[in-house]
Amino acid sequence: MIEHDSGDKPMDAQGIAPFELYAIRYARHSGRKAHDNYIGAVDFHDAESDLEYYVWVARRNSEVYVIDTGFEERSALERGRELLISVKDGLALVGVAAESVEHVILTHLHYDHAGTLDQFPKARFHIQDAEPAYATGRCMCHSALRQPFNVEDIVSFVRKLYGGQVEFHRGDTELAPGLTLHLIGGHTAGLQVVRVWTKRGWVVIASDATHLYGNIERQIPFPAVYNVGDMLEGHKRVRSLADSSRHIIPGHDPQVMQRYPALSPQTAGKVVRLDVAPNNPAE
Fold first, then answer.
1. Rounded to whole angstroms, how far apart are CA atoms 9 and 205?
2. What is the pTM of this model?
């Protein structure tokens, strides 16, 4: 792969103003083994990585796009996850009030990405056509595919749909200059990633197109998968959308909090900036 790394300097984007981009860590899951993170026998450093859970915010002046909505305390207790901060309180750390958000991008409908929808009463929810069809269709007859969904979250989504708050997309879509959606699939039938123009170039919020850096770097799929082939092809697509490997943000890797600088000393370990270069230039 040829990488075009823009470092800290914005490339020509036809005069598009850059977005600020943040990752907010709200939960974690410890004690995972290599087979929990990678299909097949693996033996390399960090293969037994814990998972951390994030929502993301892209902001440009008055424009605010929240990417995914996380889960709440009940799901944390039911699934043995540690909730570090509520998503609503996490958003407040970057000056975003959930009740005022007008745009929420749902990368997919798994419990850890599409809970707490009721905390966004004014939002329009952006999703790929294929995702609700998958989450409410015949594939949900299989417990292995159904397990990562929370039925109450799906019901909440349907209520938002019937309330006129859902906007469907099919494939690549530009939501705003400098912010685009791209259908990937693989992990779920309708998984989408978000490409964001920042002052360091095009950053891709890959969400669960790659849970960990190791999945995409080693081309080893994550075990929670609908279509393995699509997941692997999705790795290629994500790399083509990002300016370099340093511009790809995985959905659950603890290294995100280590590689990128905190928004402020007060938010260390909670919020990092993704619109600036990683702390280690080699990353």
1. 19
2. 0.93
